[in-house]
Write a structure and sequence with these properties.
With about 230 residues, this protein is mostly helical. It has a domain of about 160 residues. The chain has eight helices and no strands. Helix 1 runs parallel beside helix 8. It is elongated. The two termini are about 40 Å apart.
Amino acid sequence: MLRAVAALTVVLFAFAGCRKEGPAPAAPPPAEEPEFFVDRTPDGGTPASAEVEHPADEIGEVAAPDVKVTEALVLKYLAYRKVVVERGREAVAKVQQEEKSLNLTQRAEHFAVTMRAIEEKARAEAGLSRDEVVAVGQVTGEVFAARQIWRMNGGDEVLEKARATLATMTGDAKAKAAQALARNEQSFAQMKNAASARKRFGDEAVDAVLAHEDALWKVQQEGAKVMSAVF
């Protein structure tokens, strides 16, 4: 049960409250369940069925289905992106020095043309086709989306806290919470392992991206900084 980045609204974990010392009442009211123990759909509601289709399965097709994304291809793509970022920095410096008279719109349009030329030249030098660049970029984007949702929702740490809370519960509340937690653990595993991307692109492609996740993330962030620096 993954969710789209734009629909990230569910609260995954919250303690119901702290215990207070003192004599217990004769008939204590049932404690509220931490929200993590409530089943959630990608939209934050309760599920109508055990299987919830990922929104990515409904939008957009595989951009370059004939391209096999391997680790070797990912490494070529990574080297290509690093060249683009470095040359992009040089282009930004040139724009800032030589095109001060242009307004923001004109500067953006000119820089876009410049960056496109830089990308095309770097791609040709790296021996990559346009489809190969698109294919690796699409797999990387979907893997990153799932992994970011997993991290933003607390990752493994929030599961550990939920398990610890479950251990303090008793009776029917614990049984229900355990079932909900098991399903949420499955959802977290799907996000962490980029299950939807695996379904769309295959294990080899996803594993190739995950093997170089940190480097790909870094070059993506550096590229974003280059694109914003011109303004």
